[in-house]
Amino acid sequence: MQRVGGDLDLSAILTLVDEHLAQARAALGRRGSEVAALEGRQLLQRVDELLASGAGDPVADIDTRRAMVVLRNELGSYLLAGSTLVEEGASAGAVIGLLQRGAETVDAMLDEITAGR
Description:
By secondary structure, this protein is mainly alpha-helical. It has one domain: Four Helix Bundle (Hemerythrin (Met), subunit A). Helices cover 78% and strands 3% of the residues. The protein is built from four helices and two strands; from the N terminus they run E-E-H-H-H-H. The chain has a two-stranded antiparallel ribbon. Strand 1 and strand 2 form a beta hairpin. The chain is elongated.
């Protein structure tokens, strides 16, 4: 087993990423709530941290590391856009909609990656 981020192996990281994406999607499903936007964004930021720990694992196979970088880049673009919307005073609904698309996109990409394993 490959260990990263303390005691987590890559399989555990991917499982946690999947679980956090599902939790973020559920939180973001409470449309219009600023609390939902904040909770969803925090969960997605945790996904980003998990992906970073896996991508930085020097003993992980190159394909897994590359996949984690791709997922992290995709998610990061949505997180950055969401932060920009918040800074510009956009409605919670707009932020939630954007973050939902990001969570759905990354979740679909993760499904494609893990289906081949």
